[in-house]
Amino acid sequence: MSVSLFTVNVSGEKLENLKTKRKLASIHISDFISINVASIMARILDGKGLASDIKEELKVKIENWVSLGNRAPSLRCIIVGDDPASQTYVRNKIQAALAVGIAAETIKYDETLSQEELLAKIDVLNKDDAVDGILVQLPLPGAMDERKICNAVAPEKDVDGFHIINVGQLCLDMPTMVPATALAVIEMLKRFKIDTFGRNAVVVGRSKNVGMPIAMMLHSDRNHDSGLGMDATVTICHRYTPREQLVTFCRNADIVITATGVPKLIKADMIKPGATVIDVGITRITDEQGKTKLVGDVDYDEVVKIAGAITPVPGGVGPMTVAMLMHNTLQAAQRIQDAKTLN
Length: 343
Fold this sequence. Notes:
Layout: E1 8-10, E2 13-15, H1 18-25, H2 29-40, E3 43-44, H3 47-67, E4 74-80, H4 84-100, E5 103-109, H5 115-126, E6 133-136, H6 146-152, H7 164-171, H8 180-191, E7 200-204, H9 211-219, E8 233-237, H10 243-251, E9 255-258, E10 276-279, E11 283-286, E12 292-295, H11 300-303, E13 309-310, H12 317-342
């Protein structure tokens, strides 16, 4: 007795339609392979491209702002010492500011500058009506108290969002200046239309400038005054969370955001298929060939095969952080002007 190769059983009944048989016969094995690969490769969330779009938007907003008779927003970037990475970051910020129409300057001091002298110089900028935004590039020389320095910047000019008043207002869902990296993550989730309502989110990283504000905005009610709430259910982990627990938490997450600075901390076995992965970490390492390169917290080459969406490093959150700093500077200028008008 011969058996037809294309006889298919459906609910116990033989499917013998000749057209169906021919259709099945025309499907090549490579079609199954391509379908399978396409279904598991993550969507790449291009932070560099999005940052470029946002800076173009800001350029138009600033042109409109100036056309109404206002001066251009102004930014002062303070850097103490000769740390190469810090110099690169400040240079990128200044270039981005000038490109969108912000009057930006770098104020550089030798690492011999005392804390008292730095505080006095910040106070001068606080009182300068021609300055809207002030940021102090971190890290500072070891003898300085970073928290005291950050709190010395006037809250309304604190475009980094590090002042204790701005941090407190963020925790209370009040309109405030939000740390640029945390704001970059939230903006990416919104602009790339990643659904957060009722979703499980894990934030790996507990820094007060990145992990904490991201977690605060993720779990907050989107109906509050800040307009930054994402209505997710949030778990906070960190580099010392035991691996088996970290795997358990992350595997249950629809969204994983990591900001620890530990290369390849997040492996493929930690990610739920289809989850969104936002990699804030950035570390410079030396590879086996002796070349240096930037990597994130995520084992990208493996996780990209599992996740539904993922940010690259570099080219993900980094460029967006700079764009949101420009956003904060315009916001500072507008709020300062509004306050003067009210008074």
